[in-house]
């Protein structure tokens, strides 16, 4: 599995040598040379090889798009398997985050870890046609207490 590269670091109006591109994207020079062999175009055939910044950015963005695996309706993403999967036994929990969104959570049928997907509440009916969904409320992140703070420096009057 490959790494992700930040294509926004590449300046499109600049030319890069293999060494400069490698230092910019923290990779080895041989990685940039391998990219040239697999489709990264250089400005010309002369040495040192110069790569246009716009071409380098285009190549990295295409590389990122090829790696994406969009989930279909009824699929959640398994981080361990690195692939979209239908949850085991077609069961999932919907954990409400706000009035409009929430997280679908289920178990991966292959590795048994939790798989997730963010879903708008309005689209939940599309998923209910495929999955058995139980809606759960998220626990409150901040709880109110009635008691006084014990770390108080105020002195009580007697």
Describe what this molecule looks like in 3D.
This protein has 158 residues and is α+β, with helices and mostly antiparallel strands. It has 2 domains: 7-67, Arc Repressor Mutant, subunit A (Orthogonal Bundle); 76-137, no CATH class. Helices cover 23% and strands 24% of the residues. The chain has helices spanning 18-24, 29-37, 53-67, 124-128; strands at 15-17, 50-52, 76-78, 83-85, 91-96, 101-107, 114-120, 132-137. A 4-stranded mixed sheet has the order 7-6-5-8. A two-stranded antiparallel sheet has the order 1-2. A two-stranded antiparallel sheet has the order 3-4. Strand 5 (91-96) and strand 6 (101-107) form a beta hairpin. Helix 1 packs across helix 2. It is elongated, with a radius of gyration of 25 Å.
């Amino acid at each position: 599995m490959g790494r992700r590269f930040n294509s926004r670091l590449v300046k499109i109006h600049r030319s890069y040598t293999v060494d400069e591109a490698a230092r910019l994207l923290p990779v080895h020079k041989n990685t940039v040379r391998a990219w040239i062999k697999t489709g990264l175009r250089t400005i010309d055939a002369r040495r040192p090889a110069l790569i246009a910044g716009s071409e380098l950015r285009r190549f990295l963005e295409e590389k990122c798009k090829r790696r994406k695996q969009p989930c279909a309706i009824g699929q959640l993403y398994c981080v361990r398997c690195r692939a979209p999967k239908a949850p085991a036994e077609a069961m999932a929990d919907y954990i409400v985050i706000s009035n409009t969104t929430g997280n679908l959570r289920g178990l991966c049928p292959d590795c048994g870890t939790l798989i997730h997907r963010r879903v708008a509440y309005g689209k939940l009916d599309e998923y209910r046609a495929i999955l058995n969904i139980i809606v759960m409320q998220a626990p409150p992140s901040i709880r109110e207490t009635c008691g006084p703070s014990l770390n108080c420096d105020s002195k009580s009057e007697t």
